[in-house]
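Q: A reviewer asked whether we had any structural model of the full assembly, not just the individual parts. We don't, so I'm hoping you can provide one. Inputs are below.
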Amino acid sequence: MMHFASEKLIQTKYMLHVRIKLGDKETAMSVIEMLTKRGKRVDDFLLKMLKIGASSELYEMVKHQIASGGKRVRPAMTMLCCEAVGGSDEAAIPAAAGIELIHNYSLIFDDVIDRSDLRRGLPTLRAVYGDVMAFLAGMHYREAIFEAARRSVKPRRIEKLFSWTIRKIIEGERLDVLYEQGGRDSEYIKKMRFKHISEDDYRRMIEAKTAVLFEAACKAGGMVGDGKAPEIHGLSRYGWNCGVAFQMKDDILDIVGETEQLGKPTGKDIEEHKLGNIVVLNSLEELSQPERDKVLQTLMSQGISDSAMSDIMKLILSTKAVGRAYEKTKFLVQRAKMSLDVLPPSEAKRTLLSLADFIIRRPF
Amino acid sequence: MMHFASEKLIQTKYMLHVRIKLGDKETAMSVIEMLTKRGKRVDDFLLKMLKIGASSELYEMVKHQIASGGKRVRPAMTMLCCEAVGGSDEAAIPAAAGIELIHNYSLIFDDVIDRSDLRRGLPTLRAVYGDVMAFLAGMHYREAIFEAARRSVKPRRIEKLFSWTIRKIIEGERLDVLYEQGGRDSEYIKKMRFKHISEDDYRRMIEAKTAVLFEAACKAGGMVGDGKAPEIHGLSRYGWNCGVAFQMKDDILDIVGETEQLGKPTGKDIEEHKLGNIVVLNSLEELSQPERDKVLQTLMSQGISDSAMSDIMKLILSTKAVGRAYEKTKFLVQRAKMSLDVLPPSEAKRTLLSLADFIIRRPF
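A: Here is a predicted structure for the entire assembly that you could use as a starting point for your response.
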């Protein structure tokens, strides 16, 4: 379902869009080109990992997830971090592929959990093959992750890092579900659901759900590139801060993004009853009690009408929530860039600096 | 839903039961005692693995699966195989725990896929916590498997064996679903469903779904016990044959078992539209065309009535299918035992021989 915004909403979106894009169009394009170029090299390898022990029917399913695109931000980070500590980008491919596989592993289950039929403008694995086949494909991804890790430089450390990361993502996903305000039949979830979410709660969730994978991407790059301990630490901090910023930017885009560029309608978090969106959370602080009740009531209800969605969006955009969230992402990206001070100058380091900016300036 | 059998059915069940149990009661009891004793030692370790990186809420969920029991046949096999090649049972604990974790990992997803609310007489994880939490718990199991493997003797070989095994189980599960004759909404499954299943197809499915895990349990035991190549090969064959027999015995019990002892109603495979049951498959060969059509029609239909179930059971039991399936399990167990010829005499070897018998004589 797509929601049509009011005049005022469109105007606000437009202004924000212009502000974000101003002067960055060229940078954004070159960053996307760079990601695509590296992504292709990782894709070949990760498809090989997915093919191991897969029947032709299963392989077709697991390939669908990869074929549906993605920006390949995370594996590009692994390769760049490896180069930034003096390693070859070639050496980073298995670990980078593992990171992208972890990302897709989590997406497959995330789409089943959220009943999402569309991602990146294309039907999800579950939409094409059904939930049952999606589970099985998802489980197969975990084995491909293992295959990538064991082919990596320093396999045992990479395997351990990957497993730790996956465990965190599971915890993040668990909290994400418990932060929802409706839409679940399970008695357990209804009982355990968070009625109130502080910004600390929110951070705990997105750090686990999103930031740890960015952190792992960069740490893995530093590890396979044989970086020194302080370099790996710096790269980890860079990845972690980028990851938190990335999720907040995702939250912002869910409210003010362009449907065509996102490949999915805006307001999806609200439709999915998610209170764990920084813009929604920040707006609640500024709204009056009756307005706050209205937002929470809408989050709890099933099948939100276009006009109800438009009302909620208007309320949220009447606050400074988008701007405040954007300021937070800027601060995080600043910190991410500073974490790279420990590294000697290099082409890779320069690209990492641009990539950090791209993460919050991207229009999708 | 429980189905009440006709007079004749009860009589047949009773006779079969007596035949299987005759003179084995003592053996069965001592085997169960032995399994329980070893199981306890593995349980402590596997709970430790499950606790790693789990929030207290998640740990409660993942523990539920283990607390609901199970005979611990597979980990006991790992320990016995380790001892049979001269290793200490202590050395086998991490690998044995990993095997039991793999088993439970597959059960969690299996219960979600089959929408099962009852297992071993107790509510399943999904029944208590809902499907979403069951996925997340399931995913966490995979990480506990990794933790067990990396703490094992020969960690890299064990990790590889575990991953290979899990991939096979996924394939077995995929076939199991595609062998069903109804009960799925997915267009993909409806299109890909097998209309006819040969005994070869059946074997392909149960070998992947069940036998490879028994094979892995025994192989892992041989590996961590530092067995010679021919010994490990013999143990693998033993495990594999026991595994095929185990699944066929499961199929038999689903038709003629005792609900109270099974902890689940009989006829569950039929209710779940599963054509992949050796007794059902064998009976089809003997039935007339109209009878065959009736069985297949029932397998396709939703919500089978007690009288329809009773009719089908009568038809199946009018053939020699149960007896033929039982003969096959006897042959497999014979082969399993012969595979142990390569091993020197020992207490562990003797127990493995009893265990093979127990697998097909067990009343649950």
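A: Points you may want to mention in the reply: Confidence is low (pLDDT under 50) at residues 1-23 of chain A. The domain at 25-354 of chain A is CATH 1.10.600.10 (Farnesyl Diphosphate Synthase).
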